[in-house]
Amino acid sequence: MDPGVDNDQGLGGRRRWQLAALLSAPMLWLGVAYLGALAVLLVSAFWTVNGFTGEVVREFSLQNFRTIATEEVYRNVTLRSVGVAVAVTVICVVLALPMAFYMAKVASPRTRGWLVIAILTPLWASYLVKAYAWRVLLANDGPLDSVIGTPGYGLVAVVIVLTYLWLPYMILPIYAGLERLPDSLLEASADLGARGGRTFRGVVLPILIPSIFAGSIFTFSLSLGDYITVQIVGGKSQLIGNLVYANVGAANNLPFAAAIACVPVIIMVVYLTAVRRSGALEEL
Amino acid sequence: MTRWVLRVVMALGLLFIYVPLLLVLVNSFNGDRTFGWPPHDFTTRWWTAAWNNGGARDALWTSVKAGLGATAIALVLGTMVAFAVQRFKFFGRDTVSLLIVLPIALPGIVTGIALDSAWRSVIEPLGLGKGLFSVIVGHATFCVVTVYNNVLARLRRSGISLEEASADLGARPGQTFRYITFPMIRSALLAGGLLAFALSFDEIIVTTFTAGPGIQTLPIWIFNNLFRPNQAPVVNVVAAVLIVLSVLPVWLAQRVAGPEAGASRT
């Protein structure tokens, strides 16, 4: 039970007014205006656009969703976007685990403080600046090319840059999870004869699962919705976000854009429901 | 042995994180217009050019105004919801928390399109076209969560005994708020406000959809000039400035609330 919560089931008249005064403005903003806008967007996914006049036809139709489900372009882009999001998440986990472990269990407390700051600081640097930095780094004849070679602009570059952007979001929850893990558990496992790898698989990893899922919510959803990084380092490749953007802007087909936008939203809802059981949402 | 492997991975990880940022800083002094590598001569020409670039300065000013506006709204709304959720028990309390997180959990483009079409079909007919104000509204929508999270956490930890004591000693509600409640949540407001400002200052997707004609925030300005080769050195200086500035909030948060502050951006 939270301290300070009024436990009277029936709120007194005065408290009821206080609550109404506190909640009315935020709820009008987020509950009515924002949620309303989202609802209209969702409904408009079932509308169509008249091919001749370009006007929105406000009649229920599954045409948009049928197009998305049947045409190969949309299936490919969806699969590619999910593939990129999965790849980014997996690489982030692989990089974050040893880094977070070093920070939480190997480094001295003094070093640990500095390392946390070192991981946190880039989060405040602009997203666009970071993507831009990689555009310079990955350029042909750029710095990377003159040292080890560059993959050039394309899907590989997109995965690298998204990994770079979201890595701290994976390190921090894993680090927090490891800090709570008592050293005695690791010692007990070692005393019982387990080697490093066995302790990691048998003791550390199971405890870290909620933290890893928590981090993955960030890395996965942020990668899935991204369309800016793709434009900066992706060359000609397209992700779901680009299709939505193109349909709002150039094609001026808002209903179809709304229908495409439903794809990442549905994927995220399914993903959130799936990881909720692990307790990941409490780790956010 | 394992220790050494971990140490090497940590070092490589930090290298991965910092090399791109350092590159931008070095390039801002690179005499070569196309950033030929390694740099041959040192120049401060681009810094002068960036300082005199009207577009970049206007965009910076727009970003600051949008950030301050969104932060102010987020501070008020976020604090109100945090108090409602922490100090009252009511039907749908969990839903409220979910609603606050939603604008940041959904892909930015979804929030962007939704707000854009709502503004065009509801508010524009009333005579208020899209401009700086619509950007502030859009930013405030996803900034509320940072203030809400920080204030809620503070209220959870501090409880209400001090406020009850104040009331018992005869303070009016206004006095209790001024002398007890506000000082108690002040640093949480600062941390939440700082995060809200940073979030707004860096946002590009929702901004793209909510900005009126002629409104350019700094991220939009950078994006628009990113693909123009002759603007590259100036864009690079602006990027370098933003990297240097990003140390500021970390330093501030450390000073105000101790090392664990700012540990989460959302």
Q: What would you say about this model in short?
A:
The complex is a heterodimer of chains A (284) and B (266). Chain A is mostly helical and 284 residues long.
What does this structure look like?
The complex is a heterodimer of chains A (284) and B (266). Chain A is mainly alpha-helical. Chain A is built from twelve helices and two strands. Chain A has two domains: 30 residues, no CATH class; 212 residues, MetI-like (MetI-like fold). Chain A has a two-stranded antiparallel ribbon with strand order 1-2. Chain B is an all-alpha fold and 266 residues long. Chain B has a domain of 171 residues: MetI-like (MetI-like fold). Chain B contains twelve helices and no strands. The two termini of chain B are 37 Å apart.
Radius of gyration of chain B: 23 Å
CATH domain fold name of the largest domain in chain A: MetI-like fold
**Which segments of chain B are poorly predicted (pLDDT under 50) over 5 or more consecutive residues?**
259-266
* Reported CATH architecture of the domain at 55-225 in chain B: Orthogonal Bundle
| Proportion of residues in extended strands of chain A | under 5%
CATH topology of the domain at 55-225 in chain B, which one?
MetI-like fold
Which descriptors would you attach to this protein?
heterodimer, A: 284 residues, mainly alpha, MetI-like fold, 2 domains, 12 helices, 2 strands, B: 266 residues, disordered C terminus
Secondary-structure map with pairings?
The complex is a heterodimer of chains A (284) and B (266).
Chain A: H1 13-44, E1 48-49, E2 56-57, H2 63-70, H3 72-106, H4 109-124, H5 127-138, H6 143-147, H7 155-180, H8 183-191, H9 196-225, H10 228-233, H11 240-248, H12 254-276
Antiparallel strand pairs in A: 1-2
Helix pairs in contact in A: 2-3, 3-7, 3-9, 4-7, 5-7, 7-9, 8-9, 9-12, 11-12
Chain B: H1 2-27, H2 45-51, H3 54-87, H4 93-105, H5 108-123, H6 132-158, H7 161-168, H8 173-202, H9 205-210, H10 218-225, H11 232-245, H12 247-257
